[in-house]
Amino acid sequence: MTAIANSLSAAPARRFPAGFLISAAILLLVVPALNLIPPEGSPLHLPNYVVPLLGKYLCYALLALAMDLIWGYAGVLSLGQGAFFALGGYAMGMYLMREIGDRGVYGNPQLPDFMVFLAWKELPWYWTGFDHFAVALAMAVLVPAALALGFGWLAFRSRITGVYLSIITQALTYALMLAFFRNEMGFGGNNGLTDFKDLLGFDLSRQGTRIGLYLASAVTLGGALLLCRHVVGTKQGRVMMAMRDAESRVRFLGYSVTATKLFAFTLSAALAGLAGALYVPQVGIINPSEFSPANSIEIAVWVAVGGRGTLSGAVLGALAVNALKTWLTGAFPDAWLFFLGALFIAVTLVLPDGLVGLAARLRQKTSFRSRPRDSGTPEKKHA
Question: What is the pLDDT of residue 83?
């Protein structure tokens, strides 16, 4: 019962606000300032292509945060997070395709180019309303959440856990990938949705729009981090952590394990869908490859590298792994996969608690060494 007691009484670390404020200042103030203020020839200038790249990293960080909520705190290893991310991306992509209007290759104001090419006569019913940004944004969150709610209710009610749950969530992702590859689905088939022009009237190719999307990603990530921080600090969050440590005992104490898992799974899916909606305008394309099961596995790797069950570790892991991946693909284009694989193996064997766990151990060692040592012979006790 000790594990349950520790989990139910666990509280967030007190150092969180300072680190959060410093990170927010860097992301919201320093990065845009380095891009806009110094001239292009200056060594302090941040190149224009780096801004959307950083925005993409922040979307990945939000996705890793969603994964950490369900895996690190609820103890459910879902390998279907990539599906929720892709569904959110497709919802935003549908809006961006509708925004093109008659500026497409075929000049049809009612149908996207791929539908004209495939001789579609009218928009499918499920494209209704996607000419409004609010509808697209709502669907980017609600569709993944609804899928997670329905799928999770069936799975958790049947008490499917462990590797079996991981397998069926991966099967869900693979099934969606195969479905979205079909032209009959009405989502662009193999090519997906691309050639976007603008968002809310702002040209996506302009640097100002890219900075705006980057800032939106940073603010959303910060808001999601605060939300998750609040959730894990509530009674519901403490039950999640207790369930992660000893599910059968939590059920014995009268808590609804199914409801707790459903809550975490649905919230995680909604955050993943929101990350996908922010991701698509910055990369300019969404296609069925985003449903690839390998992507969901990679998300779990980000969380493991940063530190599972820490929130900030998930963000750090996503940023670090993707930055390293970008550098390796340029420096070692033929061998970068081997380097990345070696990193993952090393982290698993040497850093089971991730980068955050390593930092905590180093702080502990430093504080232990800095303590004054007691010298001399201890005084005798007098009766």
Answer: 95
- pLDDT reported for residue 141: 97
Q: In sequence order, what DSSP letters do the residues of 285-354 get, joined into one string? A: EE-GGGG-HHHHHHHHHHHHHH-TT-SHHHHHHHHHHHHHHHHHHHH-TTTHHHHHHHHHHHHHHH-TTH
Instruction: List Cα–Cα distances, 55 to 49, 213, 276, 292, 343, in angstroms.
Output: 10, 7, 12, 22, 24
As given in the structure block, the two tokens for residue 317 are 């892991």
Asked whether 62 and 220 are in contact (CB, 8 A), the reply is: yes
Q: Which phi and psi (to 5°) does residue 233 adopt? A: -90, -10
Q: How far apart are CA 368 and CA 360, in angstroms?
A: 12
In single-letter form, the type of residue at position 259 comes to A
Q: Most distant CA pair in the chain: distance in Å?
A: 101
Q: Which two tokens stand for residue 328?
A: 């390796």
The Cβ of residue 326 has, within 10 Å, a number of other Cβ atoms equal to 14
With 0.85 as the threshold, say if the pTM is over it: yes
Tens-place pLDDT, residues 91-130: 999 999 999 988 888 888 888 988 988 888 889 999 999 9
Residues of the chain falling short of pLDDT 70: 1-17, 367-383
What is the per-residue burial (b if ≥16 Cβ within 10 Å, else e) of 47-75?
eeeebbbbbbbbbbbbbbbbbbbbbbbbb
pLDDT at 367: 67
Give the pLDDT score at 15: 53
Give the C-alpha separation, 22 to 48, whole Å.
23
- With H, G, I as helix, E, B as strand and everything else as coil, classify residue 203: strand
Q: What is the dihedral of CA 167, 169, 173, 175, to 10 degrees?
A: 70
The ranges assigned to domains in the chain are 2-291
